[in-house]
Specification:
Layout (H helix, E strand, L loop, with lengths): L16 E4 L4 H10 L6 E7 L5 H15 L8 E4 L3 H4 L3 H4 L18 H15 L4 E3 L13 H15 L4 E3 L1 H4 L4 H7 L24 H13 L12
Parallel strand pairs: 1-2, 1-4, 2-3, 4-5
Amino acid sequence: MADPAAGWPPPAADAPLAVLVSGGLDSAVLVGEAVRAYPRVHPLYVRTGAVWEADEFLHLQRFLAALASPRLAPVVTLHMPVADVYGSHWSLSGDGVPDGSTPDEAVYLPGRNVILLAKALIWCHLNGVPQVATAPLGSNPFPDATDEFYDGFAGVVSQAVGGRVGVLRPYAAMGLHKRDVLRRGVGMPLEHTFSCIRPAGERHCGRCNKCAERRHGFRDAGVDDPTGYAAAG
């Protein structure tokens, strides 16, 4: 297995890798870097019923098509609907979506990484893929983005399936921020990524918390923002 401390991506890898993708900037760049080193990369997209998924998945398909790497497997869609536990949460209803003035904590989705990783790790076990990579950053403040959580959860699933599956999180291991990831993604088709939690058709709304984070990331990285926002920032 690749060791994040040895750098990312590794010079070469002899095993396939799964990557949890959302269509956003960080996971898109992660895929783009992974295909340079791994013999086969399997993008995994988890549908939970969030209001932005249709637009996000459309952009993800465009991004993966634009990468056009022979090492890139077709995207696998896993279904983990959360309406029965989230109820009328803003991520499902679209009401009260956090705007650009809110802190990171406002967009916390309870147990999000449990939901994303549960089926992803089982899929890896059943398909002979030893690791799934995910793209939390060094600044991620949420309780399900700690080393203890990722290692512990992977250990529980490994015990449950009688195998060994791991979670690779290179950007967090290197302490990267969004500006750092964006610089690593220069030259990739970032115009096809999608970060909005209140889409305006197929466009970024330009006003939500994630649109503000996206704008700031491009600005801080000194990279031109190719995004067409529905509203000026």
